[in-house]
Amino acid sequence: MSYQDQVSRIATELEEILDLDDLEAKVYLNLLRAGPITASALAKELDIDRARMYRTVDRLVNRNIISTTLSSPKLCIASDPHDALKIALSKKEDEVNKIKKLGEAIIDKINEEITSNQINTVPTFRVVQGRQNIYADIAQLIENSVDTIYIATTLDDVSRMYHSTIPEKISICEKNGGKVRLLVDMNDPKLAPFVKRFNATETKIGKMPSKGRIVVQKDKKMIMSDHAASSQYSGSDSDFSLCTNSNEMVDNIFTLCSFLWDSSKPLKTIDVKNFIKKTSEDQSH
């Protein structure tokens, strides 16, 4: 893997851990590499409009991820990665505690004052925006499953999901008798360790019909995106998913994933040289 590829992968993971967009992650990593530098010089180095760079720097300063000097011109300085992580953890812990405290109180009020008249037999459809919201839906689906779930997606998406609660929910699913089958589109077998660490029940490598993300639970629910997490999209808010419990759609997509699964190769049995050769031959046609 080249140095640039390594930096790109670190940036991808950093976005999820510190809740940054693509540009914010690049700015932070470049400040760590370059040391104190002006926002103007950093904008020139990254080939970014100066006004956009100033706005990005202001956001990062407000979140204590970078700081600026009192000198003229001002210099931007990246916070130590350990400090940045502590800040992110503290923020998440505060959010979780607030949700728990207020959530339990509002649920009690709903149960006491509002009569539920939900109809659970009608198929539902909804569009979810934002990668974090989508990952939360996927995590809930996995946690509540006692059957087979397919996740068919890209390597970048797997890398992002690894830093969510999804791997933990896979363990819960397995304890409840379910299993998660991960089907990933991967051209470089040297990246297999990034896939293995996701800890799916079973993993296979195969060609996807698109660059999208499919998560489907047998006879229950489906979450599908027209594109998965990718560097060509500017931020997590550009990620959209369709969620439905329509029996017809769920059954059709589950059948598709079963077919893709049967025609794919287990991760552990892939021969590196033959895999590279076959991938090169496929790309030449």
UniProtKB/TrEMBL annotation:
Pfam families: TrmB. Residues 14-81 form the Transcription regulator TrmB N-terminal domain. It comes from the Archaea. Coiled coil: none annotated. This is Transcription regulator TrmB N-terminal domain-containing protein. The lineage of its organism: Archaea, Nitrososphaerota, Nitrososphaeria, Nitrosopumilales, Nitrosopumilaceae.
